[in-house]
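pasting for ref
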Amino acid sequence: MTAMRVLVAAAGLVLTLAGPSAAEGGDMLDGFVIGHVPRDAGPSVSDFEYEPEDGVRFTSRVWERKTAAGYAVDLTVIVVRAGRFGTLGHLRDFMSAYHERDPSSWTAVQVGSRPGLKADDQVFWLVRPGVAVSVALDTGRFGAGELLAVAERVRER
């Protein structure tokens, strides 16, 4: 999906159709509104669905930009669905194994009203049993505060 804005005017009616846009947020992703995307996030926006493990489904949106070396990922938002994620601890164990990180490397953090876990460039939280969200950001480019700014504006519709 690429960022776009189309304006259609007919018989006095103005209809705006918009795709993901840095200025307005990142639109809908698997039942969630992405309410904030950093202003300079890459213009190349792609959606993916995949199952990294049996019974675990990821739906992701990735913002990339072209660099001299190819492409760089600026932001990734993932909705994670798996019946086995009943607690934040279950989610932490999966995410630690998936990202090959020591489970103790995550720091407790609040994402809005929900408890979550954070590393330098990623935060995830359990929305409700079976449904989680993960946000990863190039914090070297956008700063650590922007990671939580994005995460706190991801809301279930």
